[in-house]
Structures are given as C-alpha cells and as structure tokens.
Write a structure and sequence with these properties.
Elements: E1 3-4, H1 5-16, H2 27-44, E2 55-60, E3 67-71, E4 76-77, E5 81-91, E6 97-103, H3 105-109, E7 118-119, E8 123-127, E9 136-141, E10 143-144, E11 149-156, E12 167-168, H4 174-187, H5 195-212, H6 222-225
Helix pairs in contact: 1-4, 2-4, 4-5
C-alpha cells in the first residue's frame, strides 16, 4: 500500500494531539516537520536492527591500490554505508571467492606496512570518517593484485524524504514505527506523551527489531565435543 510523507507527518502530529483528523499542514509546518522527520530517519539508521536488509555491492579493484573512497561521486560511487557487515569477500577472474576479515580502527592502525605485498587482500577496514565530499574510505590489506573484484555487504542509511508529497512503499511494520516514534520526538519538550503513544512507539520498534534479527547459527563448544564431530540436529 502506498503512503505519502504528508500523511505520515499528519498522523504523527495527531498522535501527539497537535492535529485533529482531517487537518492539513501549513506551509511552515511542511518545511519544519519534514526537516525533523529526516533528522529522525537519520538517527534511526544508527540502530543496526532498524535496517531491514543488507546491501551487497561489487566494485572492480585496481592493481596495487589499497585505499578507495566510497559514497556519492566517490571512487566507489554508491550510497555511503553506515557499517560493513560479514561476509565481505574478494572474487578473482575464475569466480573463486576469498572471505575478508573486517578490522576495527585499532587493529588496522597496528599494521606497520600497510602497502606491503600485492596479492589477494585478507583484511578490510572501513574508515567512516567523512571526506570533504561526505564519502567514507575503504582500506584493503594486503594491496590487491589485478583482475579482482571486491564484494561488500553493508547497512545503508534509511532513506530521507525530499518532499511532503513523496509516495512511499514501506516494509511491513515500518509505517507504524515511524509514525509513533516520530510522534514521541515531536512531543519531547512540548507535551506529555500519552501512555498509549508510549506503548505504541515501544512495541512497534520492538516488532521491527525482532523482524530484523539475524538468524542464529547453532554451535557446540570444542570442549564439549572433545575433538569428535557432532551434528546439531542428531547430537
């Protein structure tokens, strides 16, 4: 079902008691509330379980080049990732894949010679700092040889809205989450949110996070199986 940004804004304002049914947005409200809604969506992107899918993308690597900017109009021209997720991997000309280990800034910083070797990269570090153009930076170690392709899985920022008349097709559960939790943001500092709104915002957010939880992988500790092979279904 298609829903419009203006309708979601009005429903959020109605949940706070600021608008009655059948009301419309003034021109000032359209500008101000749309900006607040986009700030709310940006903040929601920082919570990993609010992202409903991982985005897989591939980029051709240049021989001996270990560092690439990523973002709009960057070397890797795409929406800037908020976080890299497993699995990221290298694919060679024979369609063979080699998984990369994602490093944090501390571990990557301890690599002494970051340009050592020209081979298949084994590690990847995503520097989420902004360049002047707003891009992040991907670093590979060791430097890649020729004819390699990088595949990354990442979480992306939840979409922002350009106009109040923009039509949306949202994943299941997201409309209520956005409307009720944005209403809580609108109410902050102005009015006391009703217990019903507090419950609605809490439950809708929990439902979305529950839906986005990764599937667990069952394992047995090596100390339990004592070197023998074990099947999680048959023991």
């Amino acid at each position: 079902m298609t829903v419009y940004v203006s309708s979601m804004m009005l429903r959020s304002m109605r949940l706070t008691g600021e608008k009655a049914r059948g009301a419309t947005l003034t021109s000032d409200e359209q500008v101000e509330v749309l900006a607040e809604l986009n700030a709310f969506m940006e903040s929601s992107s920082l919570e990993g379980l609010m992202c409903y899918q991982l985005t897989q993308e591939s980029f051709a690597l240049s021989a001996s080049t270990a560092t690439y900017t990523i973002g709009p109009s960057a070397t890797f021209n795409t929406v800037r990732p908020t976080k890299l997720m497993d699995p990221c991997f290298i694919r060679d000309a024979g369609n063979l894949d080699s998984q990369l280990k994602i490093l944090g800034p501390d571990t990557y910083g301890r690599i002494v010679q970051k340009n050592a070797g020209v081979t298949y990269p084994e590690y990847i570090f995503y520097d989420k700092g902004f360049t002047s153009s707003g891009a992040g930076t991907i670093n590979l170690y060791p430097s890649p040889s020729g004819s390699l392709t990088l595949y990354i899985n990442s979480q992306k920022q939840l979409g922002s809205f350009s106009t109040v008349s923009q039509p949306l097709n949202l994943p299941i559960g997201y409309q209520l989450y956005i409307e009720s939790n944005f209403a809580m943001q609108l109410a902050a500092g102005f009015i006391q949110a009703s217990p019903e709104l507090v419950r609605m915002a809490r439950d809708s957010k929990a439902n979305v996070k529950s839906m986005n939880l990764p599937e667990p992988i069952m394992r047995l500790d090596a100390g339990i199986v004592r070197g023998t092979r074990s099947n999680i279904f048959t023991g």
